Amino acid sequence: MPAGIFRVCLVVITAIVNHPLLFPKENATVPEYAEDIIQKMKAHEENLRLEQLRLEQEIARQEATLKALEKPTETEEQNIKEPIPWDLWSAMSMVIFLLIELWRQDYQDGNWQESACEEDDMAVLGKAFKGVALPDKAALANFYERCILGATGDMARKRELVEGFADDLLEALRSVCNRDADMEVEESIGVGSMYENWRVHKPLVCDLIVPFTPPEPYCFRSQTWCSRESVPPDKQGYGTIKVCRADEDAVGCICGKTKLGEDMLCLLHSQTNQTRRLGEMEDLLCLKNTQYLDANQVMKWFQIAITKSWNKISHKYEFDLTFNLLDSPGALRIKFRSGKSIAFNLTPVVQCEDSDAYFISHFPRSGLTADPASSTDWFVTFAVYERRFIHSISKKLPANACHLSCLQILSFLHGKQCSLTGPSSLTNYHLKTVMLHLLQTRPYQDWASENLEARLQDMLKFLEKSLQEKKLCHFFIGNRKVPEVLNFPVVFQKAEPLNLFRPFVLHRDAYRKTVDTFHEMLRNTSALINEYTVHIPSVGHTNMLHKESL
């Protein structure tokens, strides 16, 4: 009996060792070891077959012994009963062995090819940066002066023009709206690359957010994904906004929690009042039959309000104002009579409690990010905190620090590569997130201007590692090392980190396209820099020619 149990355990252990799941995928990313692993698996499989044949012979001998004893005595019957458990253990071991063997075959047929593809992708990605030689410091500095500074020299002037016009437009909007029934808009806030001084792609588009509040006696009560116990991955980063009366208890009326007698009636939530209340909610831009703010209705209201306000002040300006993009309701364009134009985005937002985080009604999305399932789901943006962090840390860095220069060069190269090979799922926001992480981890003195080449390499390596792991954490969400001077809400610091590269796990085609574009950008870096440096005159040379012409 002990010997039989030992044999069964030996078979089970051998089968488990033979199972491919014992070798984690993390340890199987080196292609040159694949042949050795396959040979070992075949050797284990052959040993199992031999053990199976030996067990079958043992079972056959036991059956022959039982048939030979036609009339056993009581003593013999007791002796014969001993092999019966052995037969039971043998049968169970065979069943377990067959199940594991079938599982192994399914794993090999279904997953081996996919894991091999992942190993190939990771192997190539890991070696991509090693063979790239970036231009030297002088070439990078020359390239930055010619291509970046030359393209963004009038950034401040455009910001000033757009801000002045937006203030006038919003003031007119306040005058045309009914203060007793319409939403009330506040002053606009500049966010994004134009206000963080790193935008390189033309046209230079200013992004302005406009907080708004409901008319009295109503107020907004927001709920983020952090305050819920279980949230689906596609709902992370979103929240809902409930429109309530300011004098209404947040937990609601007690009539919903207590059984009222037949002769008692809730005057606040009677059927007539409830119908009237839902009608008021629709007037307050809520989704039909709900108290939750509808992003689509907000954008429609905002477009109509902007049109009315422009009609009121258009006589003061010698240009036209039009909506720029149909799929981006807040995109506006100023068209001058000379043919030139300036684009800017004006997007309504709702403040998240008493913080500088905002629920944004319309958010530009990449090809990976799907639209929210419901128009009552609002994306939470931390653009104000991002601008504030860059501004505050810039004061601690050396003079003429290279952090924004690195981001601008990387954004420029990636944009040019996408124009050659097609769009990529990698966005400028991903690139900025890489810079924010490195700003927090590297010493301040490392960002001196003479370290431009080294810091650019750091950003490329960080981005390469993030693509390899399909993991790039949001800088603020789940980051407990955010400087206290920012007054960042603790609820977001304690939240689970948000992986911006999570869609790559689900969209393999988009992931491969992004990786290929990244590889091509690395290979073409020197060629792109040299090409644009040769064909574009320096800023100083351009200014000198302009003076001579005068």
From TrEMBL:
Where in the sequence is the signal peptide annotated?
1-15
**MF-aspect GO terms:** protein kinase inhibitor activity
Recorded topology in the membrane: Single-pass type I membrane protein
User: What keywords would UniProt list here?
Assistant: Cell membrane, Coiled coil, Glycoprotein, Membrane, Nucleus, Signal, Transmembrane, Transmembrane helix
Question: Keyword Nucleus, does the record have it?
Answer: yes
What range(s) does the Mab-21-like HhH/H2TH-like domain occupy? 405-478
Its domain of life reads Eukaryota
| Coiled coil feature spans | 34-65
Q: Which Pfam families match?
A: Mab-21_C (PF20266)
Q: Which coarse location class applies to the principal site listed for this UniProt protein? A: membrane
The record's Gene Ontology cellular component field reads: nuclear outer membrane; plasma membrane
**Compartment list:** Cell membrane; Nucleus outer membrane
Q: What does this protein do?
A: Enhances Ca(2+)-mediated inhibition of inositol 1,4,5-triphosphate receptor (ITPR) Ca(2+) release.
The record's similarity note reads: Belongs to the ITPRIP family.
The protein, known as: Inositol 1,4,5-trisphosphate receptor-interacting protein
- Provide the species name: Chelydra serpentina
